[in-house]
Design goal:
alpha/beta
């Protein structure tokens, strides 16, 4: 293959219409643009998103994102983070008070990375298998 052999696929490039060649070609006189008006003129255009004077949608909608009320904020807590908790009973409310998880978090999962320093009673929090093993080995409990 050589550079002079390369051709575009059949039908991919359309030839431009030859306009203004008289009434016999059906693109004479007004060249298929109708009579008068902005779109008939050379250089006549409407700006992108123009909606006939109505406020365009890109100006009606807010430009900044929003926080969905329905979005559930999930949080992950490691066993190392539990060292900050001075209580034996651990639930979502205590973790929020101590700023270990986000104040709007609704789903919390306890992950088994790190070591347990004291026995904990975990309530209403999802716990991984490795975390369950470590907590129960130290004398703690998981209450769902």
């Amino acid at each position: 293959m050589r550079l002079n052999d390369i051709k575009s696929a059949a039908g991919s490039r359309q030839e431009s219409k030859k306009v203004g060649r008289g009434i016999g070609c059906s693109l004479g006189k007004t060249c298929g643009k109708g009579h008068k008006g902005q779109k008939a003129r050379a250089g006549g255009f409407r700006k992108v998103g123009f909606e006939g004077g109505q406020m365009p949608i890109q100006r009606r909608l807010p430009k900044i994102g929003f926080n969905s009320i329905a979005k559930k904020i999930k949080a992950e807590v490691t066993l190392d983070n539990l060292r900050k908790v001075p209580f034996e009973k651990i639930d979502i409310g205590i973790l929020k008070e101590l700023n270990i998880i986000h104040s709007r978090a609704s789903h919390v999962k306890l992950i088994g990375t790190g070591d347990v320093t004291s026995s904990y009673i975990v309530q209403g929090i999802k716990v991984t298998k490795s975390a369950i093993n470590k907590i129960e080995a130290f004398g703690g409990k998981i209450e769902v």
